[in-house]
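Internal tracking record. Fields below are filled automatically when a chain is submitted to the structure queue. Please do not edit lines marked as system-generated. If the sequence contains nonstandard residues, flag them in the REMARKS field before resubmitting.
Queue: standard
Priority: normal
Entity type: single polypeptide chain
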Amino acid sequence: MDDSIRIENRGDFAVWAIEAAKQIVGQHGFELARAARDGSDEDLRLAGNALGQAITDALVEVYDGLIDDPAD
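SYSTEM-GENERATED OUTPUT FOLLOWS
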């Protein structure tokens, strides 16, 4: 998530969440599907972990942005 956005209400958060999910699935979803179809258990584990980490990173990033005081 390289671009900064301003989340001021629930609608802004929903838009961010949708866009973040599309980006994450676009980057990691194919690898997970490929690993499920053609890969080993280890490939599937690694792809699943990468997808989970991307989701976690996005959520922590928005949380950090919500608790940061703009006056700082």
